Amino acid sequence: MLESRRFPYKPRPRQIEVAEEMARALKRANVILEAPTGFGKTPVVLYALLPYVERGRRIVWAVRTGSETDRPVEELAVFRRELGLKLVGVSFRGKRDMCLLARKFGSDLDYSEVSYICSRERSKCSFYRRLGDVDPYPLVARGALTYSEVYRWASEWEVCPYFLQRKLLAHADLVALSYNYVVSQELSWSVRQLIPFDESVLVVDEAHNLQNLDLGGDSVTEGTLQRALEEAAEVGSKRAVELMRHAIDYVADRFKGLGEEESELFDPEELIPDYGDGLLEEALRAGEMVRELRYRQGRRPRSSLHHFATFLEAALGLKGVRGIAFIAEKVNGRVSLSIWDMRSAEVLGSVWSRFHRVVFMSGTLNPIEAFAETVGVSSYHAISVPSPYDEANASVYLVTDLTTRGEELSREMAERYVEAVVKLLSRVRRNTAIFAASYRVQQGLIDAGLLKRAEELGYKPFIERRDMSGLEAAQALKSFKAMAGEGRGLLVAPMGGRFAEGADYPGEELMCVFLAGIPFEKPTTKTRLYIEYYQSLYGEEKGRLYAYIYPAIRRAAQALGRALRSPKDQAVLILGDYRYRSYLKLLPDYVTELLREVNHAQLDRVRLPWLDVKFQSD
Ligand code: SF4
Questions:
Q1: pLDDT the model gives residue 186
Q2: Residue 62 has pLDDT above 90, yes or no
Q3: Which candidate, 198, 491, 211, 231, places its Cα nearest to that of 352?
Q4: Less crowded by CB within 10 Å, the N or C end of the chain?
């Protein structure tokens, strides 16, 4: 069915074949595509969906975060240019990114704050009023509209970028948006009015994230409770003060013995005193007053009291629902209370059924049956593309005398890890990442002298911290990448974190990855609950694999794959834990094919693929 169409690039091996298979399969079922990074999944999927678009269906392209919405639209621009197609694509962002007015209330406002401001301001907002005079066709004619383009035009015309974008959606063949706009009932409603989901094909990018997606859970910290108490006193609500005093005392007393990173269950009803009739309603009312007050003062319409009251209301409403847990955790010395929704299969399954068809794609979905079951995909056609990497691209080692097994990383083992890394660094002399099993393991390596030893070798370390702001992280990443030419950057970050997943390191930006341990969850109450819930759904063995083993190995595979982003990338990859031997078939195929076993003292003799084969740059 695609024969008559051209592909807009010189096809790489298997691209056309996969697109053909996908186009055929979509006639009957949803498709799960697992293909390595560098395969070119985005153009292949877009190409396979062209017949659908030509028949009037829309493509809803869901990405993990708002910052990734431009990518499919940029790809659509190539299709327009190369194939002469008159398709329209819009990169859709929420009001948080698009409101021109909210910024006068402060920077870094969250979604609910901007929504609040818009609900109060819209009737008198000049940006909104002017929108009626705008003819969207000159923009529609441009075809592929990234978020910044829409924002720029709207700013120039002095109209609201958010509502201009909504006007454009009515004309869009493809809309790229974050998962939230598909998964959340509240947010998807606003998009569904303009793009009927039942007539659209949904593409879920980086679908391996779905199992751990935040399905609308919420959390409050001891800090939230303290600020809520102050606000209750500020607006003179004695009953809200009573509620907050009780909640603060309850948390302090009940969780005083909770250790760092430990978790326990809590009962939301215990946050309200026994005589508490009407306290919650009063706290909601007082919280609204605080938001109103801040708004009138021209400040962020934020209220911790309102947040706590809505959190408690939601928790009480969900009490007793299977798959929902209420967790108290201690992080950075503070207790945080969360509503945790583990029902990925149940909740997401109902989302997929709203669409005509769904395509799930990622580089790490192995094993596909487990992925499908855990995210509620019942009938599907699976396509798995082997990776193109061989010994010209990579050398892969499993270190037989290293492990992070056990509750704590012993000093002796931490020092052995540092020795291993030092030997490796002295050999590779290229930008390297140490991806640790957890922040605790990372700290154990740092305490054992990792940074000092690396600096003595001329490397400059960049460390991911738990409390790092988005801006700080972006700056650290930029500085690390900038060292590619000298090959002296050393990134130290936990697996599953923002540097080990999502970040791209093409070419020489990252040429060596060392996995320090396997990123299994710490055996806390939370982990136990998660495993038990999955065992209740899938049986004892499968439940443990789905909830505990597969997610950890997927995080490791993601981290490992950072260094191989295209068929011309080259890297040294080290599995720094002997237990990986048991999970090799869950890792990318090139790992098993290229794997050699060594002990930590032999890492100064690893093979450097770039000495053997030099790829020509394009
Ligand atoms: S209409 Fe637009 S610019 Fe005006 S407040 Fe709402 S989102 Fe902001």
A1: 82
A2: yes
A3: 198
A4: C
Nearest alpha carbon to residue 580 among 554, 613, 553: 553
Select from 196, 294, 192, 282 the least CA-distant residue to 246: 282
Measured from the CB, is residue 154 less than 6 Å from ligand 1?
A: no
Average pLDDT over residues 571-578: 98
Torsion of CA 164, 167, 171, 172, to 10 degrees: 60
Q: Which percentage of the chain shows pLDDT scores above 70?
A: 99
Give strand pairing partners of 603.
Answer: none
Cα angle value 21/27/32 (rounded, 5°): 55
Average pLDDT over every residue of 233-257: 96
Task: Determine whether the shortest distance from the Cβ of 131 to ligand 1 is under 6 A.
Answer: no
Tens digits of residue pLDDT in 541-571 = 999 999 999 999 999 999 999 999 888 899 9
Tokens of 115: 């929504």
Q: What pTM was computed for the model?
A: 0.90
- What is the Cα–Cα distance from 425 to 444, expressed in whole angstroms? 19
**pLDDT for the residue 127:** 95
- Report, in angstroms and rounded to the nearest whole number, the Rg of the chain calculated over CA atoms: 26
- The CB of 128 under 6 Å from ligand 1? The reply is yes
Q: Please give the DSSP secondary-structure letter assigned to residue 599.
A: -
57 alpha carbon – ligand 1 mean position (Å): 30
Nearest to 290, CA basis, from 224, 336, 246? 224
Concatenated DSSP letters of 489-517: EEEEEETTSTTTTT----GGG--EEEEES
Q: Which of 515, 493, 597, 492 is nearest to 561 (CA)?
A: 515
Q: Is the CB of 100 under 6 A from ligand 1?
A: yes
Which residue, among 477, 427, 422, has the nearest Cα to 449 in the 3D structure? 422
Q: Please say whether the beta carbons of 561 and 363 come within 8 A.
A: yes
pLDDT above 60 (res 618): no
- Nearest ligand 1 atom to alpha carbon 98: 7
Atom of ligand 1 lying closest to residue 102 CA: 8
pLDDT at 565: 86
Q: Which one of 35-39, 188-192, 459-463 scores highest in mean pLDDT?
A: 459-463
Cα separation of 440 and 458, whole Å?
Answer: 25
Task: Identify any residues that bridge with 145 across adjacent strands, giving them in sequence order.
Answer: 90
- Indicate which residue's Cα is closest to atom 7 of ligand 1: 99
Strands (E), 451-587: 460-463, 489-494, 512-516, 571-576
Nearest CA to ligand 1 atom 2: 160
Lowest mean pLDDT among 101-110, 221-230, 294-303, 606-615: 101-110
What pLDDT, on a 0 to 100 scale, did the predictor assign at position 2? 64
CB of 160 closer than 6 angstroms to any ligand 1 atom = yes
Average pLDDT on 385-404 reads: 95
